[in-house]
Amino acid sequence: MMGPSHALSGAAVWLTGSWALDQFADYHQSPLALAVGTAVCAGGALFPDLDLSGKVTRNQGGATVARTFGVFSLFLAEVMEKVSLGVYYATKLSRDPRRNNGHRTLTHTIPFTTLVGWGTTTLCTAYGKWAVVGILFFMIGLALRGLFDRWAERAGWVIVTLASAAAAWYTFANLPGDRGYPMIGLAVGVGCFVHILGDMITKAGVPILWPIPIKRRMWMMVGLPNSIALRTGSKAEVVVLRTALTVLSVLAAMGLMAPSVLQRFNIEV
User: Fold this and answer.
1) Fewer beta carbons below 10 Å: N end or C end of the chain?
2) Are 48 and 38 in contact (CB under 8 A)?
3) Cα 78 to chain center, whole Å?
4) Per the omega criterion (within 30 degrees of 0), is the bond before 211 cis?
5) Is the backbone of residue 215 left (phi > 0), alpha (psi -120 to 50) or beta?
């Protein structure tokens, strides 16, 4: 899927999950906590595509996420792509094909998703709000680049970076004192997992079963059959899927923040 679709899917899943927790587990979140979780999950849903690098010196190409902070994020994407390709060749079996890039390999696996979520939680626990502000800066930037793709492209990476820094610092200033903030790690992990699920409904698929060997292949791409798989950039994705995700996000947000509004329209929440 395209970057905006991934980011929107992360936001929709977090808002819907938060609504479910509120309704069935009596787990309430403040507006700030809800906004932070939604932004982080949307950013996390773009994070796996940092394995698609572009032209660092020219500040061109790469995935949506790789262009978020200009040459800095493009360089990070270049590093991650090379690491992913290295892991691919270090673990490939006889029937795994040769590759010239690491896109849709390591960062599109369950172990990577688990590691990122755990690592985020560990950093927040060890360093408190100072780790949180760095994570928020990065993830909010990804969320802005994905959810507001056209605006971000017109504004440029400097404006996106400044907006991310301002939002992260405001959030940092209004968060409670030092603590673990486990929901931030969960939001990053959930976002990465949602990204994997999104790519699974496309023709290319993802190696979601790695590192389980199957028929002398370690990197078996799993996805929907071509006859029903989503084509990246098609009307089914851009119009139908994004509309459905937007409606889901709005309804979940209203169910959390203004349930009385939905009740006026006889919508049960």
Assistant:
1) C
2) no
3) 18
4) yes
5) left
SS3 75: helix
pTM of the entire predicted model: 0.89
* CB neighbour burial string for 99-112, b if at least 16 within 10 angstroms, e if fewer: eeebbbbbbbbbeb
- Relative to beta strand 54-55, strand 60-61 is antiparallel
Lowest-pLDDT range of 51-55, 99-103, 148-152, 241-245: 51-55
Which residue reads 């309704």 in tokens?
A: 23
Taking alpha carbons only, the member of 183, 204, 239 closest to residue 8 is 239
Token pair, residue 237, equals: 């994705």
For residue 224, name the pLDDT band (cuts at 50, 70, 90).
Answer: confident
Band the pLDDT of 113: cuts 50, 70, 90. very high
Q: What separation in angstroms does the CA of 38 have from each of 43, 45, 118, 128, 253?
A: 9, 11, 18, 20, 10
Give Cα separations from 49 to 96, 107, 109, 205, 221 (angstroms). 21, 7, 12, 14, 16
Q: How far is CA 174 from CA 82, 107, 125, in A?
A: 38, 32, 18
Mean pLDDT over 162-171 rounds to 92
Identify the CA nearest to 68 among candidates 149, 135, 11.
149
Q: What is the torsion angle, in degrees rounded to the nearest 10, for the CA atoms of residue 75, residue 77, residue 82 and residue 84?
A: 160
Phi-psi region of 200 (alpha: psi -120 to 50; beta: other; left: phi over 0): alpha
